[in-house]
Amino acid sequence: MIRFAIFFLALIAGAAPAFAVTNWIAEQTPETITWEGTEGNGNRFSGRCTAFIADIAFDAEALDASSVTVAIDMMSCLTGEKQKDEYLPAEGWFNVADYPKAVFEAKTFRHDGGNRYLAEGTLTLRGETNPITLPFTLDIDGGKAHVTGETELNRLDFGVGAGQLASPDVAAPEVTVRIDLTATKS
């Protein structure tokens, strides 16, 4: 539908049709979306989000026509530690009952030299939408693409652990999110 609209607008404007970007099908593995935080006592802990739906249309030759939307099932975002996994879905943290999905959307991409790129978009988590820049590397071999990236978020910008849970004595506000994605041309 979006491609049709772009094509239609290009015809109306008398411009050449938009470059057709490559669509990709993401493999879902436990290591695709991971995150790392710090407890109030300084101990590091990690988690992963294992269920997501990705709509990827990306071509390095047509960055202006590329887009990515990833919807993450927040119930799948767990640490593997029983106590943490009991409270993460609760109202004070991810509030999965009211906000079952987090969505990352990017429509602006920049080449940063070699195989390095920047995706500029938004992340919506717990009903809060904030701008996010995700630096990533892209390696393509035939019909397979491998993307790795890392960015730091402030959980308080999204209301994660607000109120008394906002204290750095509970957990540091900074959370590192990592992407390690393999995708196949569709």
Walkthrough of the structure:
By secondary structure, the protein is mostly beta strands. It has helices spanning about 1-15, 80-85; strands at about 25, 35-40, 45-50, 50-55, 65-75, 75-80, 100-110, 115-125, 130-140, 145-155, 175-185. An 8-stranded antiparallel barrel has the order 1-4-5-7-8-9-10-11. β2 (about 35-40) and β3 (about 45-50) form a beta hairpin. The longest helix has 12 residues, at about 1-15. It starts with a helix and ends with a strand.
Q: What would you say about this model in short?
A:
This protein has 186 residues and is mainly β.
User: Quaternary status of these chains?
Assistant: single chain
Q: Order of helices and strands, N to C?
A: HEEEEEEHEEEEE
Strand content: over 45%
Note the overall shape. elongated
**What does the main sheet amount to?**
8 strands, antiparallel, barrel
Search tags:
186 residues, mainly beta, 8-stranded antiparallel β-barrel
What's the arrangement of secondary structure elements?
Elements lengths: L1 H12 L9 E4 L6 E6 L5 E6 L2 E6 L9 E7 L3 E2 L3 H6 L13 E11 L4 E10 L2 E14 L2 E11 L19 E12 L1
Antiparallel strand pairs: 1-4, 1-11, 2-3, 2-11, 3-6, 4-5, 5-7, 7-8, 8-9, 9-10, 10-11
